[in-house]
Amino acid sequence: MLAEPLAPESKTGTPEAGDDVLLRVNGLKTRFNQDGRVVTAVDGVTFDVRRGETLAIVGESGSGKSVTAMSILRLIPSPPGEITDGEILFNGKDILAMNDEEIRQMRGSDIAMIFQEPMTSMNPVLTIGRQLSEPMEVHNKGSRRSLREKCAELLRKVRIPDPESRLDAYPHQLSGGMRQRAMIAMGLACTPKLIIADEPTTALDVTVQAQILELLKDLTREHNSSMILITHDLGVVARYATRINVMYAGRIVEQGTSSEIFKDPRHPYTLGLMASIPRLDQPKGGRLIPINGQPPDLANLPKGCPFHPRCPYARDLCREERPPLTQVAGEHWKACWIDVKEVHANA
User: Fold this and answer.
1) Phi, then psi, of 163 in degrees rounded to 5
2) 112 within 8 A of 127, measured Cβ to Cβ
3) What are the pLDDT digits (tens) for 49-64?
4) Cα end-to-end distance, the chain, whole Å
5) Nearest C-alpha neighbor of 74 from the set 58, 50, 98
6) N or C: which end of the chain has fewer CB within 10 A?
7) What is the mean pLDDT of residues 332-338?
8) Rounded distance, CA 102 to CA 77, Å?
9) pLDDT value at 230 more than 70
């Protein structure tokens, strides 16, 4: 039999960070007004990014990962979107309190974003060299002649062959992997302290994916930059992330170090994500276990825990009350009324 819901642990709230924090997000809420419906895409998210680390944000499409990243850089289109609550502190400065000129100076220089699809993120009528040099021109990083040399060096760093000739190429003249490398070069142009990589290997074959991710890892180490890696691929997370935030319905439902979460997952959604990916150690002919149901309508979330309609462990308490983030151990936190470890032990 499955165990009844446990009372929440005594220590609740959100994790506290140390002095090595580069970015701190507290209680962030972002919503969109669409045809009279209010969609809360990010709902009270709290986390921090430490200097030199890679933090992964994982979850299904629509869980709020990309909107969280766009909110950090204040790229939410208004209307229909708006940041309604919370604070975003970068090196102790509140990004939400900055004026337009201050946030423009921060974008690219201190915080850079590598977007998901280069063909829609890059300007098709400008050369690679022109697009690479633009952030350095905006932030006064050198003369036009020296900028071309710097651009060629950036392409060389991201391992694009014959970089000088590639500067005069247009995005459509490069392969998908080359375009993604050019996007990474643009993100690194001003040596930012924080890089946000939003699904940086989507639509690339597995060989190129590995090359891109190794490249990002090497470059962030070289510049001692922090990175937020947004992905749905837990294999990528296991290899490259220091810590993990698991998001569902705009909220963080589990967070902790990579080792804590992979060795001892405590949220049913995290367990579902892990069970739904192929493993080399599975028996031949073994089947993947999908997460039943669909992600919820963010404009009409169910009462209680938003995951309960899809959760195999849901009880009455789950249907009535939203669970807070509660400390499991160390840096490991979960938002669930059920102790899934005890459930499996008693099954």
Assistant:
1) -60, -35
2) no
3) 999 999 999 999 889 9
4) 5
5) 98
6) N
7) 95
8) 18
9) yes
